[in-house]
Amino acid sequence: MAAQDGGSSGRAAAPPLPRVLCDTGELASLGDGEAPAGALWKLTEPGRQLDSNVVRLPGGGRVDTHTEPDLDVLLLVLGGEARLDCTDGEHPLRTGVLTWLPHGSARAVLAGPDGVTYLTVHRRRPGMRVQPPKAAGRLRPAGTDAERDRPL
After folding, report:
1. Where are the alpha helices (DSSP H) in 23-75?
2. 58: Cβ–Cβ under 8 A, 6 or more apart, which residues?
3. Residue 144 vs residues 38, 133, 148: alpha-carbon distances, Å
4. Residue 117: which of 20, 19, 34 has the closest Cα?
5. Contacts of 17 (CB under 8 A, 6+ apart)
6. Which pairing describes strands 89-94 and 98-101: parallel, antiparallel, or unpaired?
């Protein structure tokens, strides 16, 4: 049976290799006039167990309050400033601040006047699966494509 058929060719597959994916410093240095709002970069490598995005919000831009029911998310501010709004209040975010957003927590992000660029990392979301009828409320689409592609 050939390898293309899903059989074995007798050779072991080469292990995956670490590699540089992007220069987040370069992405973070782009200003409001130079970078589009939304996802500037996404992890797309096949076989990955994680998802990750570099996101740019322009000055005053906002990710509205929402709850991610299934995934914990790490958010690292790469450049600029923002405010994280949670049920326990407002938390300032600046370059270098790493924040854990546990699943089930309500949160919103409001960019500072000069905008913010941040990295999110979370477990890869499993493919679509049949859900009980009560889960339908979670399946409503979010706002923009960038918001749907990354949980916060």
Report:
1. 24-29
2. 32, 37, 111, 115
3. 8, 25, 6
4. 34
5. none
6. unpaired
Contacts (Cβ under 8 Å, ≥6 apart) of 143: 64
121 forms bridges with which residues in the sheet?
52, 74
Number of residues that this document lists for the chain: 152
pLDDT digits (tens, 9 = 90+) for 124-140: 976 655 656 665 554 44
- CA triple 48-116-148, angle to 5 deg: 45
Tell me the three state secondary structure of residue 140: coil
Are 93 and 116 contacting, i.e. CB atoms less than 8 angstroms apart?
A: yes
How much is the pLDDT for 137? 52
Tokens standing for residue 70: 């299934």
Dihedral (C-alpha) 128, 131, 151, 127: value to the nearest 10 degrees? -20
Enter the pTM of the model.
0.72
Per the DSSP assignment, residues forming a β-bridge with 119 are 54, 76
Report DSSP letters for 99-128, one per residue: EEE-TT-EEEEEEEEEEEEEEEEEEPPPPP
Beta 73-86 vs 62-67: how paired, if at all? unpaired
